[in-house]
Structures are given as C-alpha cells and as structure tokens.
C-alpha cells in the first residue's frame, strides 16, 4: 500500500515572521536550539 503523505511543513521566520509559504525558510541550530530564518533575513544573521 503506497501512501502519499504530504506533510504541510510550514516554518516561520523568527525575525520577520514570514512563513515558508511565501519565502524560503531555512533551519539552523544555534547554541543547541533549532532556529528558523528566511532567506531575506539570513544576511542579517551573517552580519550579526
Ligand atoms: Zn525573515
């Protein structure tokens, strides 16, 4: 029985609050905690 389960995984950027529906959101780990940030805010993260 093949089951095509489509998980609607929606992540939310912790900086601007956008969701992965609108903007690609990447997951990273900082100080042992999993964080989510969109590609728009990622440069800010890199610059600190
Ligand atoms: Zn963002």
TrEMBL record:
Give the domain of life.
Bacteria
* Protein name per its UniProtKB record: Small CPxCG-related zinc finger protein
């Amino acid at each position: 029985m093949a089951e095509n389960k489509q998980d609607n995984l929606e992540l939310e950027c912790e900086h601007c609050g956008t969701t992965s529906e609108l903007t690609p959101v990447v997951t990273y780990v900082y100080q042992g905690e999993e964080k989510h940030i969109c590609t728009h805010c990622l440069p800010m993260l890199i610059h600190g």
